[in-house]
Specification:
The protein is 63% helix and 11% strand. With 149 residues, it is mostly helical. It has 2 domains: 2-72, Winged helix-like DNA-binding domain superfamily/Winged helix DNA-binding domain (Arc Repressor Mutant, subunit A), CATH 1.10.10; 79-137. Strands 1-3-2 form a 3-stranded antiparallel beta sheet. A hairpin with a 2-residue loop joins strand 2 (57-62) and strand 3 (65-72). The chain is elongated.
Length: 149
């Protein structure tokens, strides 16, 4: 997961935390995460906040304990896919606009840019189809068995 995170522009430690949380059977606090991954608490703090902002993790509390605990977001796990689709749609739009602006002066360059835009459009369309299928097959949130009712 660390390498996957790096491919998406996140720090490797964010991916390692994400991977750990997928394997965890219960929420973990900073010290547990830092100890299991052999990293600093500061790194855990920075990267759990980043994963919280991306809706990958959520902060939870335990009765009688003042520490923050972390677990995978218990909502539908579709947010990441939606963000990828939005990024690809944006890139498609930017490239199509650039191609339109290039067309009069540089028609061959405009065509190359349009072909790249088409890749983003096609991938976004395929991801939309996959997202629709996932939503039909798994409409309920993805929860750890330890948190299931």
């Amino acid at each position: 997961m660390g390498l996957f995170a790096e491919e998406d522009g996140l720090p490797r430690i964010a991916g390692r935390i994400w991977g750990l949380m997928m394997l965890a059977e219960e929420p973990l606090h900073f010290d547990e995460i830092a100890e299991r991954l052999q990293v600093s608490r500061a790194s855990v703090s920075t990267n759990t906040r980043r994963l919280l902002d991306l809706h990958i993790l959520e902060r939870v509390t335990k009765c009688g304990d003042r520490r923050d605990y972390w677990q995978l977001n218990s909502g539908p796990a579709f947010d990441t896919l939606v963000r990828v689709i939005e990024r690809f749609d944006h890139r498609d739009g930017v490239l199509r606009q650039a191609a339109d602006e290039l067309e009069p002066a540089l028609p061959e360059a405009a065509e190359r840019v349009r072909r790249r835009a088409e890749v983003f459009r096609a991938v976004a369309g395929g991801l939309r189809h996959a997202l629709d299928e996932l939503r039909q097959a798994q409409p309920e949130p993805l929860l750890f068995s330890a948190r299931s009712p």
